[in-house]
Amino acid sequence: MGNEAVAMGALAAGVQVVCGYPGTPSSETLETIAKRNPGNVYVEWSVNEKAGAEVAAGAAYAGARSLVTMKQMGLNVAADPVMCVNYIGVKGAMVIYVCDDPGPISSQTEQDTRSFARYAHIPCFDCDSPEQAFQAVQDAFAFSEEHGTPVILRSTTRVCHACADIDVPEIVNPEPPEGFTKDPRWVIFPKLAYEAKLRVAGREPELSEEFSGYKGNSLEGSGPFGIACGGISYAYVREAIRGHEDQFTVLKIATPYPFPKELARQFLLGADKILCFEELDPYIEDALIYEYGNLSLDIDNFIEGKRTGTVRLGGELSASEIADVIARVTGVDTSMSFSEPEDVPSLPVRPPVLCAGCPHRGAFYAVKKAVGEKPAIYSGDIGCYTLGNAAPLDMVDTCLCMGAGITMAQGLDHAMNGVCAAADGDPTTCFAFVGDSTFFASGITGTVNAVYNQADMILCVLDNSTTAMTGHQPHPGMGKTMMGQAVEPVDIAKVLEGIGVKSVRTVDPQNLAESVAAVKEAMGESSVRAIIFKSPCIALIKPDPAKTVDIDRCIGCMRCINEIGCPALITDKENLTEQGRQKAIIDKSLCTGCGLCAQRCPADAIG
To answer: What pTM, to 2 d.p., does this model score?
Structure first.
């Protein structure tokens, strides 16, 4: 897999310290390094991306080769240290592996790390295949060490999860790092930062010239029509023009920043027409337009891409879509270059839902039942529990970014119930939902803010004892590190008490009566109070025997289906009540035996 290729390339390059925070599509890289660790490589899941970037920077200050992994949204969290280490530089090598998610498939937004690299003045390598990724990470480490700078290695979902056969050298333990040498350069001060800005911005022409000769960049073919691309779009282009290569000159950009200007100029001067294919930002397109302007040539209709509306602005591309654009613009019909299956049935509509037996469903349902018709707002967060927004639960009113549910609930409370609110208005209870992993990653700060600023809110920590959404990685509350060490788990209840939350309850969300009672008690209190809904993720435990519906006792009220929304509950179209209502049945292949539906059934028909 592409992520595994990056991991093996990093090990082959002698990486010594590896940090990161799980985020699809990047997670497998760190997990592979931990699995293939030759012995003296340090690996950790950091509490968040900011912490991971800082650990990696510290290791690089001591002369180590360090790697920190994250997805594109995580780069926002890590931006604080990343925007400083670019000025200070490193002694060893530091590679920041960021995986973008065009679509987006599993993210809040699309975001292009190439644009961030340019903004941060950090050299950037781009991956177009697992094979190239394996080599690119090794080149990134060498470049980082040679120039004393952090380097961004960027990939995208289709490269991260594509597969290829790669010959990997024997992985051996790296040599110990030289160690830390005290020097004023490691302390960032305004004057030093000013001088560093001049240095990192001023080195762009030199690095651009070096990248023009980098083997990862290429100018392929000599046809009249130019195609500029990079990353996975390069793979799509090669597939789209197969059999018609003589009609095209392809510029592949593997180092988006600093842009390889000399290579780009050769490309510009040799083409009659240029098409730019890239996902996310029109990064290559803008760079070519800039260079074309520097050459003082006529730009009208010469370069086409996202800026001209020729290529879609967002989402993923495909070989077939690129072939269609090529045919429309150049007249070269490449549609027969590759085959697509015919008469493929449409995929069924399958919106994402909480798993059957997920304890989060019980937590959401308990809050919903306890609140009833009283005014309330539910601020959600990033994780499996974001799926609580789906019907019939409808329990996520806001979702912004990791940890924001806690702080947004405070803003809503201050605006609707505090000094801003009308004196005679009914108070609105503000709930904030956060997972256990997200609580450690970015929720503690917001909770401190709530206590300090006297917010009136109920914090619901959905503790399923794992980082479920990204693949069940460990976190500080689980008592196990990525190195396999058993450690004392960080107790969320004690953390909340230490922060100053006076009311903290822990309940089992699969016990509906207990959970509803806890929520009602919390609603009768004021200030910041917390309920920890603690039950392990259903993927981590052996399910109980599947429940069954006694068809004779089922009255067809559909409360189990219409209120809980478990995917294991479906309607039985063959068995009807005397009134003609359909009855409920349980799909035993999905049911995990949690019993939430049985607790809700008014006819006691589920057992």
So the answer is: 0.90
CA 524/CA 456 separation, integer angstroms: 11
Separation CA 370–CA 512 (nearest Å): 10
Say which residue the tokens 């760079």 belong to.
287
Tokens of 331: 């007249």
One domain for residues 316 and 226: yes
Tens of pLDDT, residues 400-459? 998 899 999 999 998 888 777 666 667 899 999 999 999 999 999 999 999 999 999 999
- The CA-atom distances, in angstroms, between 339 and each of 129, 179, 239, 320 are 21, 56, 10, 9
* Radius of gyration of the chain measured on its C-alpha atoms: 27
Let me know whether 327 and 251 are in one domain: yes
* 479 in the same domain as 366: yes
Q: Is 607 exposed, middle or buried (0-12, 13-18, 19+ CB in 10 A)?
A: exposed
Domain that holds residue 142: 2-202
pLDDT digits (tens, 9 = 90+) for 456-515: 999 999 999 898 888 889 898 898 899 988 999 999 999 999 999 999 999 999 999 999
Same domain, 173 and 219: no
C-alpha 446/C-alpha 409 separation (Å) is 10
Pick the closest to residue 472 from 418, 413, 540, 407 (CA basis): 540
Distance of CA 295 to the CA centre of its chain: 40
CA distance 81 to 448: 22
Tally of structural domains, the chain? 4
